[in-house]
Amino acid sequence: MNITCSHKMVLTEVHKLESEEDVAVALASYIYKLSGKFTASGTFSVVLSGGTLINTLRKLTEHPYVSSIRWSKWLIFFLDERVVPLDHPDSNFKLAYDGFLSKVPIPESNIYPIKENLSPEEAADEYEQRLKHLVTKNKLKASPATGFAKFDLMLVGMGPEGHVASLFCWHFQRFEKKKWVTFITDSPKPPPNRITFTLPLINSASHVAMAVTGEDAADAVKMALGKHANDHYPLPVQKVSPELSLTWFLDKEATSEL
Ligand SMILES: O=C(O)[C@H](O)[C@@H](O)[C@H](O)[C@H](O)COP(=O)(O)O
C-alpha cells in the first residue's frame, strides 16, 4: 500500500491487490469501518456508481457484514444515472437494486433514485434541487469549504479512458463549476442520455473509494498514479480530490502498467 498527500492535503491510499476477489474483500472491510464511524452518531450518506462497482460490493451482502452494519442509518444516492425508467435494463438504480440494495435492509425511504419521465436536463435539475433541499433540512451535511453537499462516502468506478461518473474526457461537463448535477445527451458510453454529479460536488465529499479492476483500466491507472502522471490534459479521474481521503482499490491487471 502507498500513502501520499496531495497539495490539498487529501490522504491518498493505494491498495494494490492480487485479484478482483481481493478488491471486493478489501472494499467491504473499508466500507464497514467507515460505516461504523459515521453511524455511531448519525447517518451514513453513500453515493453509488454503476458498472462493475455494484458487483464488487457483493461481500457486504454476506456474513458478517449483512448482519452487523447499521443499514437503517444508510442513505443512498446515485453518482450518475442513465435517463431511462427505473426498471429499464440500462438503469443504474436497477443494477444497484438487483445486485445490492435488495439484499440489505436499507429502508426504501433512504434511497434516492432519479425521477422518471423527465428530460435529462429536467432530471438533473430535479436531483440537484432534491439534494439542496436535503441539505436545508440537515439530512445531508454541507461542505463549509464549498457550500456543496458533503457526502460521507462516494464509491466510484473508472472507465478505460479515465472517465468517472458521466464526466468524459472530451466533454464540457467535466469543467462544470457551479452546478451540483448536470446532464449529457451524447455520452460516448451508451446509453447517451445521463445525469451526473459534477466534480465540485464529488470533491466536496469526505471520502472517495475508487474500485478499479481489469486490464482495460491499466493505461488510465498509469496516467493517474504512475510516476509520469499526465498533468497536461488530465483525465477526469485525475481531478478527483475529496476533502479527506481518496482510497484506490486495484487488482493486479489494473496495476499492470505501473
Ligand atoms: O453509469 C455508468 O456507466 C457508471 O456510473 C460509470 O461511470 C462507471 O462507473 C464507469 O464507466 C466504470 O464502469 P465499469 O466499472 O463497468 O468499468
TrEMBL record:
Entry similarity comment: Belongs to the glucosamine/galactosamine-6-phosphate isomerase family. 6-phosphogluconolactonase subfamily.
Pathway linked to the protein: Carbohydrate degradation; pentose phosphate pathway
Domain (Glucosamine/galactosamine-6-phosphate isomerase) ranges: 19-245
Classification via InterPro entries: 6-phosphogluconolactonase_DevB (IPR005900), 6PGL (IPR039104), Glc/Gal-6P_isomerase (IPR006148), NagB/RpiA_transferase-like (IPR037171)
SUPFAM superfamilies, alphabetized: NagB/RpiA/CoA transferase-like
Enzyme Commission code: 3.1.1.31
Sample GO molecular function, one term: 6-phosphogluconolactonase activity
Catalysed transformations (reactions): 6-phospho-D-glucono-1,5-lactone + H2O = 6-phospho-D-gluconate + H(+)
Protein name: Probable 6-phosphogluconolactonase
GO biological process: carbohydrate metabolic process; pentose-phosphate shunt
Root EC class: hydrolase
Organism encoding this protein: Ambrosia artemisiifolia (Common ragweed)
